[in-house]
Design brief:
Oligomer: single chain
Radius of gyration: 13 Å
Shape: globular
Helix content: 40-55%
Structural class: mainly alpha
Largest sheet: 2 strands, antiparallel
Order of helices and strands: HHHHEHE
Number of helices: 5
Distance between the termini: 32 Å
Length: 121
């Protein structure tokens, strides 16, 4: 994570923690889940490690959790990100509030469909 996004090791660890908590919550979420800009960086870094990512998905979701970027924006609002952070807290995860912001600088944003099981289609 630190290598992929020029983060300090401490910040990279916190972002990775939140990305994993996000994915674990997505696996059973009953509300649309949208990562913050920071957490989305962690998701992208994790997805690059395809074998570990696929194993995590299988173990925690029983299925592959797809990432659905919405090029050009859309889907990531402060309200959606706040709802996601609340869902993670309700699932028992610690949420680092400083990483759950929307700064609008992400070029490809994940829509509210992130994690949907595409095998159902």
């Amino acid at each position: 994570m630190a290598t992929h996004n020029a983060q300090t090791p401490e910040r990279a660890e916190r972002i990775a923690d939140q990305a994993v908590a996000f994915l674990a919550t997505v696996a059973t979420a009953t509300v649309p889940m949208v990562p913050s800009d920071d957490v989305d960086m962690g998701l992208h870094a994790f997805i690059l490690h395809t074998k570990a990512y696929a194993q995590f998905c299988d173990q925690h979701a029983g299925r592959f959790l797809h990432h659905n970027p919405a090029p050009g924006g859309g889907g990531r609002t402060l309200e959606a990100v706040t709802t996601t952070a609340h869902a993670m807290k309700a699932a028992g995860f610690m949420v680092f509030d400083d990483l759950w912001t929307v700064n609008g600088e992400s070029a490809a944003q994940c829509d509210s469909d992130c994690g949907r099981d595409y095998r159902a289609n």
